[in-house]
Amino acid sequence: MELLAPMRLYTLSKRHFVLVFVFFLISFGVTIFIGIAGPKVIAEQEHSGDQLLLKNLSVKTGPFNLVSPPLTTYNQQLWLTCVMQVEHSNMGDFQQPFEINVELKGVMQDASVMHINNVHQKSRTLHCRTKCDEIIVLHLGYLTYTQYQVLVSFSGLDNITYEIKVKFVWKTYNPSFSQVEIWFRFVFVVLTFMVTCLFAHSLRKFSMRDWGIEQKWMSILLPMLLLYNDPFFPLSFLVNSWFPGTLDTFFQALFLCALLLFWLCVYHGIRVQGERKCLTFYLPKLIIVGLLWLSAVTLGIWQTVNELQDPTYQYKVDIVNFQGMKGFFLIVVALYILYLIFLVVRACSELKNMPYSDLRLRFLTALTFVVLIISMVILYLRFGAKALQNNFVAELSTHYQNSAEFLSFYGLLNFYLYTLAFVYSPSKNALYDSQLKDNPAFSMLNDSDDEVIYGSDYEDMPLQNGRAIKATAKYQDESDTD
Hints:
Helix content: 40-55%
Shape: elongated
Largest sheet: 5 strands, antiparallel
């Protein structure tokens, strides 16, 4: 048997549990409404290809001379996309491979022009159904110059007998959204820091070896949530470098994988009392989640490094390796899901008649299920059936389309951790109840079945605290008699 620091979870009545879930949903809903009222994420500027051509030149060849809008660090990133429209009503499904040549120059603040890259020639495919797919010409992950000049030309479209219209679109982050992002990240950083300090303060009277597995994990997840909110995010507006963006990606992957590891360890650890050996308990979980983290970080770094060398880089340049990495990632995800389902089913079957452990299991499962359902709804509304297409790493479609999407993801995970921290922190009378052992056999040692309050119809009475006080009183009486 192991002594555990009591949790507020044991003292909550059914009405209190409902209030906890209501508060979580209201807090999440407020962030959604703030996001809906927020600014648009992407600012666009369109140019017709006909207006960019010199006389007697064809839109099927170019060249097109494009100049970006004036840029600041609040624009964060820059995309140039090309949208073609084939003038033929009975065309059906149409594909045409062609070559695109891109030359990039940067304009300094003193209006001098710097040559950035040599001409890049890339193979692309014009794919049209009712309308043609958007083609990303180039992407800059950070902005070094105040303006950019791009010279674009095509080869391989001359043999198309249909008339073609070409439209180029500059896309950047809306500066107003960048300011909203800075402020809300700052708010979440401050809130997370306060919650972390309060949680650590509530456990200060208990030895770390007496903490429950949930409390130990919360002491790890809350600092990682602080990194997920990225207190270094404003550096991306002060330093023209790829490093702040890469650091943000690293922190997000680290926190999300730690959360995945938390679910595995808690659902397994609730069943395993006593010492949890590293080799048999933690190592298999670390291997699975570590592979997920390694895959996510590798994909992000791979894309960043290639874009630094070639702004026109896309996954199609290295499609074989990309598909292999994506397949490996999906296999590990499927393995993780199966392992987690096994642990949940095993825990539910073994702990359904053990009041303390069953309560911990049911609360975590209910709250996590709500979070996962909301996450899947958000992902479906955002991507639809295209969530795992080949463009899910680096293209514009993986970025937020409005402020509501940004705040929904950040708000959901932050309020999820805040709720867990509140429930797993010790209650006010925790020091008095700290002699109780978090073992169902001990809690029912001196009680008959009729005396167990847990599961009764008395909704206004604490689910566990009633029996805890009663067991403590009997324990003291027996000690005095001895």
